[in-house]
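Justification of computing resources. Each target in the renewal requires a structure prediction run like the one illustrated here; the chain below, 88 residues long, is used simply to show the kind of job we budget for.
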Amino acid sequence: MKLGEEARVQLTDFSLEGSARAELRTQRRRAEKDGASFRMLSPEEVTAMLPKLRAISDAWLEDKAAAEKSFSVGAFNEEYIRHFPWRW
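Resulting structure tokens:
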């Protein structure tokens, strides 16, 4: 299931409560059950994680029998990933 390509969410007002978010709650529970997790990485962690991220990207492409799309959808690009420092 495709969750989306881009989103901008006002986190101060965001909630999973209510009927409008029922499908999102279902997808979150499924992802958690499947072992998915999310966290922000420090710049140092990003650099160390790049080989693993590359392997994940390559496995996804192989599973889809696809090649990098670059212009139309995007591509795995280590320099691009390193370019943006995460601030929190």
